[in-house]
Amino acid sequence: MNTEMNTDQIAAAVVTAIENIKGQDIVVLDVSKQSALFERMIIASAESTRQTKAIAHNVQVELKALGVPDQGIEGLTSGEWVLLDLGSIVVHIMQPAVRQYYDLEALWSAAADQRNRRTS
After folding, report:
1. Which residue in 6, 16, 41, 104 has a CA-CA distance of 20 to 30 Å to 68?
2. pLDDT (tens digit, 9 = 90+) per residue, 6-24?
């Protein structure tokens, strides 16, 4: 990972790469208190499998150009839900029906609420 860029800068670059391919409903979640594996989760919607794959590819290309190669990618075969592992950031690019079904935003928000209740 590029040591010159911090997590927030990488997240901003990911958001830009998603926006460049017309990704929609982009959400950046700070999950650093819920996960020891990564600090941010970025979730975006794409209208087709082709767009989902194109967004994932653009994120890979743009981040690699900045010195931040991905550590893995899953879901390119079906294209309904593509996950990119960027180390401190995990990117989910999903078609709207899949995103609504799994509702990762609510799942991770519930985890944060549970953690906050335990520490209060």
Report:
1. 104
2. 999 999 999 999 999 999 9
